[in-house]
Structure formats: C-alpha cells, structure tokens
Amino acid sequence: MNNQDNNNAMNGQSLNISEQRQQELKQLFPGVFTETRNDKGELVETIDFERLKAELGEFSEIYDNRRERYGMDWPGKRDCLRLIQEPGQATLKPCREESVDFDTTENLFIEGDNLEVLKLLQKAYYGKVKMIYIDPPYNTGKEFIYPDNYSESLNTYLSYAGLIDDQGKKFSTNTAAEGRFHTKWLNMMYPRLYLARNLLREDGVIFISIDDNEVENLRRMCDEIFGEENFIANICWQKKYAVSNDDPSIGVMHDHIIVFAKSKAFKRKLLPRTEKQNSRYKNIDNDPRGRWASDNYVSNKSKTERPTLWYPIIHPVTGEDVWPDESAVWRYSKEKHLELESEGRLYWGPNNSYKKPRLRRYLSEIQD
Known about the structure:
Blueprint: H1 3-9, H2 17-28, E1 33-37, E2 43-47, H3 49-55, H4 61-65, H5 77-85, H6 114-125, E3 129-134, E4 145-147, H7 154-158, E5 171-173, H8 181-199, E6 200-210, H9 215-227, E7 231-238, E8 254-261, H10 275-278, E9 292-295, E10 313-314, E11 321-322, H11 334-342, E12 346-347, E13 358-362
C-alpha cells in the first residue's frame, strides 16, 4: 500500500457499510434499483425487494398483484423473469463427424435455440466471456417471427421455418396492427440479454446490432439489465451509401450498434500505430522532445462564433501583430497561446517564413 492509499484509508472517516453493500448488490442485480420520491419529495434510488426476490426465483403474491411503478414494463415481463429461472431442457450433442480437430480445437460452434444454449453455457462460462456480439432479429413487422406460445422450446425453434410447431400451433408474423408489436420483441430479447450479461467477465463488453425500430427500447432494456452507468456508446454504422429509389421518406442509411460494459472494469484497448502512420512525424531541427509534425493553428470558427479567440499574436522575427482571418480564428485562448509559445510549441516554418504559426505535435503525445 502506497502513501496515497494510506492517506485514503486513514482519512478519519469510517466505511459506509450500507452504501458499500448496495453498490455490490447493484453490480449483481442492476434491475432491482428504481427511482421513487421520499417524504420530502426528493428523488431517491431505492431497492425493489419484491423484484429482487423474483430475480432470485421467489415469486410472491405481492409481486404478482402489485401496481406497477416507474420503470420499463410491458405485458409478459414477469414471465421473462420466470423463464430466466427455469433450467434448460436441452442437451448439447457433440458432432465429431462435422468437426475439425475436435479434441484439440479451442473454437466452439453451437447450433440450436439461442435461449436454451445460453442457459446451457451458464455453468461452464458464467463470468468468463470477454466480449459478446449479437445480431438479433430487427423488429420490422415483416420478417420477425415469434411463437404465440411465448416460452418456446428447442423443438418449436426448429419448426420456425414451417410456421407450425409439433402441437400444430401456428406461429405469426409480428405486425404493428396487433398492438403487441413491441411486446413480442421485448419478451424475446429480455431473457437472452439477461443471460448474456451473466456470461460476461467483470471487464467484459457486449455489442448489439439494431435498427431504428427498436433502438430506443433496446437502450432502455439494457439500462435495466446492465445498469445505466455501464452504457458505453451508440455506434452509428453506415450500412449503405445510396438511397433506394422506392423509399417514400427520408432514406435510412445507418444501423446502430449499442455497446454496454459489465462494469466499470471495462477498458478500451487500442491498436498499435504502424510506421506508415508515424511516417509524417519527423525531427528536422533535432528537437530534444523527439519526432513531431505541424498541425493547424486556426479553427473552423468565425470571429462572431468565438470572439475570445480573435486576438493578435507577435511574429518572432518582425515583431508585428499577426491576426487570424475573421472566418477562421485561433484554436486556443490567449492564455493557452502564451503557454504554448513559452514551451516552444509554435512552428513558423523554415527560417520563420510562415505568416501564421503551426503547432508542433509530438509523436510521443499521440495515442495508439
């Protein structure tokens, strides 16, 4: 333990055990925390103990019959929680004849209903998966097929293509006219995302592809399952570059990739820079700080937009005032400019021949 750790540990304040335990509980069950107002009308975070019991597999009459509160709810959500607690009914069968190097390979390909598979993976891979990417059905109201008998099995999954299960019950397409357009999709997604979170390591992350139809519901659902504080990004993926001729409205050119971490332990890693990327950095004047490249010293903002960035600087040779263009003022405040100038970060070109300076950016400061 270093001095800073000692200082933090011995600051005269005792550990708030209750708060610590609540934070630990939030890591395990982020969905049981909700917002309510106390007697003073203040918005506070509370624990939904009946919901906690439900997540632990104990369903009370109070939970079944109570009035719903703030949160993301829809018909069938309670059944989702029950379905999560039910043990899987399937068994993984090795296919040696279809495999390559079955006994030595480190790769695994599983074919079957993803809900059953996710349940089967819980025992061996709980808390061990670094990254998950899923491409779920997009709820377009056309292709998305889901059984009316909500809790599907492996057999019914394999009957999707025929639209009839082994009991002769029909499957239906999901159309907006039904009134259950979003509910069916949410009931399909919730248990799968919940079980996927269980598989992630503490520093794990999940990427989920989706289009505009359900991106808002997916984000709110992930806020509940993974914790709102673990949202990383909504990446816009440009999927096409030309608008369809028959598009009746604004052409949608992108899909979304929603990214959530398991916890704050997730850290982004970067790829190393290549020598080709570094080739623009030289050291033409033997600068002791190493290789550098010059960067623009003016911005794309105008004098009207950034009046504080409209000021003169002094040319190092002529001593004259140098002003930026009114349509492109300096990038830095006057105080920051004086700091950069004192550090020798301004580059005025060979033999100080430039009318405006450029900024020295050192390779040592550039991230991977």
